[in-house]
Amino acid sequence: xxxxxxxxxxxxxxxxxxxxxxxxxxxxxxxxxxxxxxxxxxxxxxxxxxxxxxxxxxxxxxxxxxxxxxxxxxxxxxxxxxxxxxxxxxxxxxxxxxxxxxxxxxxxxxxxxxxxxxxxxxxxxxxxxxxxxxxxxxxxxxxxxxxxxxxxxxxxxxxxxxxxxxxxxxxxxxxxxxxxxxxxxxxxxxxxxxxxxxxxxxxxxxxxxxxxxxxxxxxxxxxxxxxxxxxxxxxxxxxxxxxxxxxxxxxxxxxxxxx
Length: 259
Prior knowledge:
Layout: E1 5-10, E2 13-18, H1 28-42, E3 49-54, E4 59-61, H2 69-73, H3 78-93, E5 99-103, E6 106-108, H4 110-116, E7 120-124, E8 128-130, H5 144-152, H6 154-163, E9 167-168, H7 169-174, E10 180-182, H8 187-199, H9 203-217, H10 221-235, H11 239-249
Parallel strand pairs: 2-3, 3-5, 4-6, 5-7, 6-8, 7-10
Antiparallel strand pairs: 1-2, 8-9
Helix pairs in contact: 1-3, 4-5, 5-6, 9-10
């Protein structure tokens, strides 16, 4: 357990909680511990899905730690610092297991970009989500200009970034920014239920779904289908598919070993 990121394991699921009150801002130390936490779970065979949330009920993550910005301004190698942030976000985006973000309050700036790096987002009804960097004379620098348009479309993404205005949880669901809205205080329960459904399946198949979808988005349809075919062949070589087919024939629940 780190000082800023708490890991709790339960029912094939890892719950990661960012603990930097009052608003769980993303400082350098928080980013470092996030990267370390995900890396520690990468090869943990007992973890099939990951839930990511913030402590308290005010914020998932209210943005980057602006107190660190003056130091960045004077750093002649600022690009290295920026890319180290991208390395953590990319590692979450490319994590070989499903990742669900529970947005339990303010989800601004870097917090929104962190949520965008996750596979699924569940927002509590009081959450507000946005990229307000333009109000500081900035623009999103944690992958927001790249991931948001891919998720909700170019025009709406530009509108949110040009104005810096947040959207409600309901509006976020309407435009496809979040998958589901839960009542305040019930986001984690909703996420746990979803994670339980996911974790009952084969990680061999789940990880390849993620590879096929994410990899296919940057390819033509023809190239994407070829990627899918290669991964489909791979999954047919796993022990889990043998168990799945056998369980189906025997009319019982499959017991996957994730091998």
